[in-house]
Specification:
The complex is a heterodimer.
Chain A (H helix, E strand, L loop, with lengths): L3 H5 L20 E9 L5 E10 L2 E7 L8 E5 L3 E5 L1 E6 L9 H4 L10 H4 L16 H9 L1 E6 L8 E7 L4 E2 L2 E2 L3 E11 L12 H26 L13 H5 L1 H4 L5 E4 L3 H14 L3 E5 L7 H6 L4 E4 L7 H16 L3 H15 L3 H18 L1 H7 L4 E4 L5 H13 L5 H16 L15 E5 L9 E7 L2 E4 L4
Parallel strand pairs in A: 1-4, 1-5, 6-7, 11-12, 12-13, 13-14, 14-15
Antiparallel strand pairs in A: 1-2, 2-3, 5-16, 7-8, 8-11, 9-10, 16-17, 17-18
Helix pairs in contact in A: 4-14, 5-8, 12-13
Chain B lengths: L1 H5 L17 E9 L5 E10 L2 E6 L9 E4 L4 E4 L1 E6 L29 H7 L2 E6 L7 E4 L1 E4 L16 E6 L2 H11 L6 H34 L14 H10 L3 E7 L2 H14 L5 E4 L7 H7 L2 E4 L17 H7 L4 E3 L10 H12 L3 H6 L3 H6 L17 E4 L10 E6 L2 E5 L19 H13 L18 H4 L5
Parallel strand pairs in B: 1-4, 1-5, 6-7, 10-11, 11-12, 12-13, 13-14
Antiparallel strand pairs in B: 1-2, 2-3, 5-15, 7-9, 8-10, 15-16, 16-17
Helix pairs in contact in B: 4-5, 4-6, 8-9
Classes of the chains: A alpha/beta, B alpha/beta.
């Protein structure tokens, strides 16, 4: 029930069409004879794609492109996939002001909104910079859109969806905004230093009080603006509280970063009390609370960070890999004997420790698989700025975590689009927004594949793979 | 975990985790009911987590599992009225009043410390906020259903309690720390009276607004709309204290400040509260008895800061003899494992009866937490929370062999898990050496600063303070 309204979402064609230089002609491009892998993993070959004005105009087999279209590339060594969507990030945004730069407040128990990290009125488009290196990194990694929000603490701002590219004109860069305010970012980040709130439990309480205050203000405003207004004093206006009205009214979701099932449950407690929907962002395995998530239609944006194996597992797998080549070499045989001895010396206690840690490591690797199996709707978030690491993490969850390449692709494209309620993104069909990645190779996930172009809002970026 | 470190020869079985109320027969033990005397060669029959029958040679269906308690002592699970066992964080030390916060939103359901406490026969704890604030957060009464989630651990029938704190801790954190009231013991009283007055005023305005709103909604054309009064969580909780819906547990040491709070509560009509620690309570025991106040104290722990020097191991006995309902608590993840010894000290020093001493770790704390209707003694209709001992639990040689919560065996010394951590609590990247260091820290002894956990990060030059005990 909850969440249905935003999931359906109203797709506003903002972005370039509303930008300052409306006369700019968006490029008309095409590719020919390529393979397309759709977000569901299905592949069609010998495809022609034509896009203009940021929209895909034509997807079909073997057809030729309109004369006006510039042929970007052609050939059956190429694969085109929908561009990735980062469901929640701080790309293109300035660094947060550190709490220490504010000093200690005079009233630690009641700091200003800013000092407490309560800034839900901030819209990302007020400071988003499409030329920022973090946005360039997104493009290089294959992202065509990012849902970005201010850096900060408990409630740093509202996240908006941006294209990862726009064009420079005489009056500056065109706005890369696709849709404003997809939700409110929430994190268990205290005010820092001696200021309330400093603990997770206090953040919970502060959040509730904010919504009680917002609720009273909203009621006051409606009484004041309604009939009989002459009877009632004017409300004390408050931009921060007023910015929370759509959350209070269930019109927009809370986008909450959590690092454990317990924290996720705490956010769901807030959602239950105030009846709003939640999008969770996490790198943790939330499958233990899958039934709570599915019952409340709460999706999860999963962070593709490759976890590091425990040292002893790392060493063991290295030894295994090294063994065959070294077996003929006498000196290295001694080495491996020495290593063997170390293993023999393990106490029964450490053996047992390792046995359980190996299980924990398997669970960590299988986190994404477990969540998919539990029926949780999973998208992607939190690309940290290094394309190579990101692709390595994707391969990790594929090879070690049991997630298929087509599952990964839908997580990164159509699932993220559905979770954010921007369903004209994330697919390659006629009428979709022209966000695509052109890859040299047949398997987009393979180490040998390389991204040639990222297309965002129809704009083509050539990707330098060095 | 102590066992995990020391016993290489053990099997590495994992602990039993809570799966819900069970049916079980505990057969032929010496049953210490606490409230109805000792019953030799007696059976306790627990059905679906609740005691159904206590008597000799009970007949039960053949499929019921049976625990042979021959030559054992069967007593109710121990109740600790003061613990910070498994909080995520303990102190929100940025404000002198934090009644709006609840420890129920700060429960760590993955902490192996719960298993350690079960090993000592403990089944219920008062999981408390720390003592940094005059009025801290609301507490969480937990049953140690090891393996349950943060909701399943909560003692659903328990009334809400809240932490207060007097004396050095709140004056140091706030007055000395950030220059806000309270700086002195006088200020502590002022903070309480001011917020109580605010809460009464708030409650009046809020109720008035709600009734005006209801009138307006019934007849919007005839009645003008009210100016909304926002729900104020902090003041609503304070108001509930005054109304008697929330039980106060107050960290305190000195007799003068204890009497101060008795007087404040008299003025506002607050009843049925408990002084925690209360090392000087013996000086004002008749006054406490008259006020109907409870005391939850250490048997012999003191001198960790200036206000805790005037202390005696006779404190609990004197309070008890004066008719104050008194419990012995731990406030420590180590001490919680041998509260039976702590109770025994009251017999050793104060000469009270063994039964009265056991009551101090069972039915008396149950009364202080408002849960004596459910736990704290072995009686028909009460929860099947039981500990089974090798000998009289007040003996230094007695060992807790089994602990049951809701009729389920959650600690069994015969199959004690060498590594008692929950699967979900195991870190995939912590090194063996790190874990060893962490465990030895945890089992080493009484933790410093349990009550002031998280508060010290707020001190800019806290090095000296960090070396002191702070309960």
């Amino acid at each position: 029930m909850r969440g249905a309204s935003w999931m359906i979402g109203i797709v506003l064609l903002l972005g370039t069409s509303l930008s300052v230089s409306a006369q700019t002609t968006l490029p008309s491009y095409g590719v020919k004879g390529v393979h397309i892998m759709h977000s569901d993993g299905s592949v069609s070959s010998n495809q022609t794609i034509h896009w203009a004005d940021g929209v895909i105009k034509l997807v079909s087999e073997g057809e030729s492109l309109p004369a006006s279209a510039k042929i970007l590339v052609e050939g059956d060594t190429l694969l085109v996939i929908p561009a990735f969507i980062d469901g929640f990030n701080h790309s293109g945004m300035p660094e947060a002001k550190s709490p220490s730069s504010y000093g200690n407040p005079d009233r630690p128990s009641d700091p200003t909104y800013d000092r407490a990290g309560i800034q839900p009125h901030r819209l990302a488009e007020s400071e988003f910079d499409v030329t920022h290196s973090t946005v360039e990194a997104l493009r290089s990694a294959g992202f065509g859109a990012v849902n970005s929000a201010h850096n900060g603490r408990m409630l740093p701002g509202q996240a908006s969806l941006f294209f990862t590219q726009s064009v420079e004109t005489y009056s500056g860069y065109e706005s890369p905004l696709y849709e404003s305010s997809l939700g409110y970012v929430f994190q268990f980040e205290g005010a820092g230093g001696r200021a309330y709130p400093s603990t997770d439990m206090a953040i919970m309480a502060r959040f509730k009080q904010l919504l009680y205050d917002a609720s009273a203000l909203q009621e006051h405003i409606s009484y004041f603006e309604g009939a009989g207004a002459e009877q009632i004093q004017p409300p004390q206006r408050d931009a921060v509280l007023e910015s929370l009205f759509p959350l209070l009214n269930g019109e927009k979701p809370l986008m909450a970063a959590v690092d454990s099932p317990e924290d996720a449950e705490r956010v769901l407690m807030l959602a239950e009390e105030f009846d709003f929907s939640v999008i969770l962002a996490s790198n943790a395995d939330l499958s233990p609370i899958a039934s709570k998530l599915t019952q409340t239609a709460t999706p999860v944006l999963f962070q593709f960070d490759k976890p590091d194996a425990p040292d002893w597992i790392e060493e063991e797998s290295k030894e295994e890999a090294d063994d065959p080549s070294e077996s003929s070499d006498e000196s290295s045989e001694e080495d491996s004997n020495a290593e063997q001895d170390v293993t023999d010396e393990l106490s029964e206690e450490e053996e047992a420790f390792r046995a359980r840690q190996a299980m924990a490591w398997d669970a960590k690797k299988g986190a994404l698989r477990s969540m998919l199996d539990a029926g949780i709707m999973v998208g992607a978030y939190g690309f940290d700025g290094k394309a190579a690491d990101f692709h390595e993490a994707l391969r990790f969850y594929h090879e070690e975590g049991g997630v298929s390449s087509s599952e990964l692709l839908s997580i990164l494209t159509s699932n993220s689009a559905m979770i954010l309620g921007v369903e004209r993104l994330g697919s390659i069909t006629e009428g979709s927004i022209a966000n695509m990645v052109v890859i040299h190779g047949q398997d987009w996930l393979s180490k040998d594949a390389s991204i040639l172009y990222t297309v965002s809002d129809g704009h083509v970026s050539k990707i330098d793979n060095k | 975990m102590m066992v995990f470190l020391l016993s290489y020869g053990h099997t590495f079985a994992q602990p039993t985790t809570y799966s819900g109320p069970q049916t079980v027969l505990i057969k032929n033990g010496l049953v210490k009911t606490i409230t109805q005397g000792d019953l030799p060669n007696t059976d306790v029959y627990i059905v679906n987590g609740v005691i159904q029958e206590i008597g000799q040679n009970l007949t039960v269906p053949s499929n019921v599992s049976v625990i042979d308690a021959t030559d054992k002592v069967v007593m109710p699970g121990i109740i600790d009225a003061h613990s910070h066992l498994n909080t995520v964080s303990t102190n929100e030390a940025t404000s002198p009043v934090t009644a709006e916060i609840t420890i129920k939103e700060s429960i760590d359901p993955n902490d192996v410390a719960m298993y350690h406490a079960l090993a000592g026969g403990v089944t219920t704890i008062n999981l408390m906020h720390g003592s940094a604030n005059v009025i801290g957060a609301r507490n969480a009464t937990l049953k140690l259903r090891y393996g349950a989630d943060q909701f399943g651990l909560q003692f659903q029938e328990a009334p809400q309690t809240i932490k207060f704190a007097l004396g050095e801790n709140p004056t140091r954190v706030h007055g000395q720390g950030t220059g806000v009231q309270p700086r002195t013991r006088m200020g502590v009283e002022r903070v309480i009276r001011d917020i109580f007055d605010d809460a009464i005023e708030y409650d009046r305005k809020r109720q008035e607004y709600l009734s005006q709103k209801a009138a307006y909604e019934r007849r919007p054309n005839r009645v003008s709309p009210p100016v909304p009064v926002a729900k104020n969580l902090r003041l609503e909780v304070i108001s509930d204290i005054i109304k008697g819906n929330i039980l106060v547990h107050c960290h305190s040491y000195r007799a003068d400040e204890i009497v101060m709070l008795v007087n404040v509560f008299k003025d506002y009509g607050v009843e049925n509260y408990t002084f925690q620690h209360a090392n000087e309570a013996f000086k004002v025991a008749p006054e406490l008895a008259e006020a109907g106040a409870n005391a939850s104290v250490f048997s012999d722990w003191w001198a960790y800061k200036f206000e805790v020097y005037y202390s005696t191991a006779y404190n609990a006995a004197i309070l008890h003899e004066n008719g104050v309902n008194t419990s012995i608590n731990s406030d420590s993840n180590e001490l919680i494992r041998h509260l039976n010894h702590e109770a025994a000290k009251v017999v050793r020093y104060g000469g009270i009866s063994a039964d009265d001493a056991l009551a101090m770790i069972t039915i008396n704390p149950a009364k202080q937490l408002g849960i004596d209707e459910y736990v704290g003694s072995l009686e028909v209709g009460k929860h099947g929370d039981v500990s089974i001992w090798s000998a009289d639990p007040l003996s230094i040689y007695a060992i807790n062999e089994m602990t049951l919560v809701d009729g389920q065996v959650l600690f069994d010394r015969a199959s004690d898990a060498a590594d008692a951590r929950l699967d979900r609590a195991i870190s995939y990247d912590q090194s063996f050496e790190d874990l060893q260091a962490q465990v030895s820290e945890e089992v080493r002894g009484r933790q410093d600063d349990a009550c002031m956990e998280d508060a010290f990060i707020l001190f800019e030059s806290g090095s000296q303070m960090e070396q002191t005990h702070n309960h």
